[in-house]
Amino acid sequence: MCGIFGVLSADPAVPLMMDALGRLEYRGYDSVGLATVFEGKLSRRRAAGKLSALQKLLEREPLQGLSGIGHTRWATHGPPTIENSHPHVAGRVAVVHNGIIENHAILRAELSAAGVTFESATDTEVVAHLLNRELLVGATPHEAMALVMPRLIGAFAFVVLIAGEEDLLLAARKASPLAIGIGDGVAYVGSDAVALAPLTRRIIYLDDGDWAELLRSRISVFDCHGVAVSRPEYLSTVSSGMMGKGNFRHFMEKEIYDQPEAIAHTLHAVIDPGTWIAALPAPLDNVNAVSKITILAAGTSFYAALTARYWFESIGGVACEVDLSSEFRERKAVLPDEGVVIAVSQSGESLDTLLALRHGKSFYQKTLALVNVPESSIARESDAILLTRAGPEFGVASTKAFTAQLTALLGLAIAFGWARGNIKDCDALRLITALEGVPSRIARALKDVSKYQKIVHDLLRVRDVFYLGRGLSYPIALEGALKLKEITYIHAEGYAAGEMKHGPIALIDEHALVILVAPSDGLFGKIASNMSEVRARGGRVILLTDAKGAEELGTAADHLVVLPDIQPEVSPILYAIPVQLLAYLTAVEKGTDVDQPRNLAKSVTVE
Ligand code: F6R
Asked: Which residues form the SIS domain (predicted)?
């Protein structure tokens, strides 16, 4: 992971780099550093911890220069110490890097045998030494890059700054994201368009294996054979106005409250609000030809995919399989002719999902990307794109992107099922009407959160938390447990409610808290039995349900959250809200770092 940034500016580089690193902190925040070239001399400052630690260091030891590179780290090789912080320097060369150089051990051994001593435990340092070695024997920076690039194996992006070169940055990418920004006599490079958004909207994306030479006046791109190539310039859709926290305490809180709007916008990307006709993107539009849909995703996006399987099967009338991106390549999946792969990813950059998508393509599957970032790698490598319109998501724990994914996937299933004749006009209309009603119900569910306070106190006291759900509520149970773990560090597990008796029930006693995701749908009776089983063993119960469910079982629960009535098929989108709020409010009460929880990063670009 990690965020990388480079600039050739007309103004002092450090303030620009610090701002950009702030925008990139969502990619990693365990250590940070930057380097500049000033009067030909390369200097760097590095700190363990977050950007604020580097800020303090720069106040004591400022850096001058109009050209620089910066890095915010999520450790892969070596702990987050100052020695392992980027930029890594060898002789005249400084490097910031995201991703993994897989053959670093071989390269390190070769360099060590030639007398090189290493300062850090990172894989990155080999790149700096390889480039410096070429410069030492007289290569130009261009020649050094052309010689070193073919030697690097892995998924990586890096930017190079060289002493004595105040109008030059070198940048390269292979599988990891990298965006080059074009300004007026200024050049930028960063991990994504978000880092560059306030600086420029003119973006060039490098292809896999490309590297680039940036001067203030010219950007030259070379392919993996070192041949000069031309890559198109895009106008980024990310704007700096989308990036603030407003009056909210955290990005996560803002993003929870953004959901009615995010869902409405996303819905209208699939369903025309004027005609109520749902449009199917390629390759799903040839409905009768599609033999099977395989949905690939990670983390929270995987839970959106799991929910969608219920929808594609029952509403779409099509065989649907869902797999974790990281596992998909590890098995011999049978992928039929005319199969469609849908890659679901907020960032569009999760390396596991990108590699799974490529694996699907190697089996001649047609591909659709469901992403929140139009310029992302997964979007660019898919046959077609369907955008969630959630707006940029900065909180590391995904919220609005998840409900936007659910909305888009249900919209797709309805359109698909209707076009294929699996559901009648009246069913399609009923479901679309139900979807249209979700934003207002979420707004109601968000109105008064004071009722959660007592539950939060219970959550902070228990040993284990179990989220249980059946059918469409099962993935929401999984999502609830993930949210709680991520930002409160409280142990939580999500289970299909019917599975509890097959093992987890052994853990139920007075120190366990069970959260039942239970709209009063056709499965409510079975959930009621699960609740009795928990109560009989001394477990405490929080019931998330509607007015009817509350009337039937409310008195038997220790805590009750009553949500607006909703059609069963769309209930997962609404029931995502209380599980997000429970995690968020508990984290705030506990005092954890909500937007930047320990060990995590927003965009996971390593395997
Ligand atoms: C959890 C969370 C992660 C992501 C996962 C996939 O709150 O945010 O589990 O869902 O890393 O990320 P994307 O959707 O960007 O591929």
From this structure: 280-424, 455-597
Ligand 1 centroid from CA 347, angstroms: 8
Question: Is there an atom of ligand 1 within 6 Å of 132 CB?
Answer: no
**With contact defined as beta carbons under 8 Å apart, do 517 and 581 qualify?**
no
326 CB within 6 A, ligand 1: no
CA 58–ligand 1 middle distance (angstroms): 33
Report the pLDDT value the prediction gives residue 332, as an integer from 0 to 100.
Answer: 83
Residues 6+ apart with CB under 8 A from 95: 69, 86, 87, 88, 89, 124, 125, 127, 128, 131, 158, 159, 160
CA atoms of 18 and 5, how far apart (whole Å): 10
192 and 183 Cβ atoms separated by less than 8 Å: no
One domain, residues 224 and 300: no
Mapping DSSP to helix (H, G, I), strand (E, B) and coil, where does residue 331 land? coil
How many Cα neighbours within 13 Å face the side chain of 359?
Answer: 23
Residue closest by Cα to atom 3 of ligand 1: 299
Q: Which atom of ligand 1 is nearest to the CA of 352?
A: 16
Residue range 505-514, pLDDT digits in tens: 999 999 999 9
Q: Are residues 114 and 229 in the same domain?
A: yes
Asked which of 370, 403, 436 is the last residue of a domain, the reply is 436
598 is a domain residue? no
State whether the Cα torsion 402-496-564-572 is positive or negative.
positive
SS3 for 495? strand
Q: Is the CB of residue 475 less than 8 Å from the CB of residue 572?
A: yes
Inform me whether the pLDDT recorded for 240 exceeds 70. Answer: no
Nearest-atom number in ligand 1 for the CA of 353 is: 16
For residue 421, the 8-state DSSP code is T
Residue 75's domain spans which residues? 3-246
pLDDT digits (tens, 9 = 90+) for 366-394: 999 999 988 788 998 999 999 999 988 98
Q: Would you say the CB of residue 299 lies under 6 angstroms from ligand 1?
A: yes
List C-alpha distances in Å: 570 to 301, 420, 470, 573: 17, 21, 14, 6
Q: Do 490 and 551 lie in a common domain?
A: yes
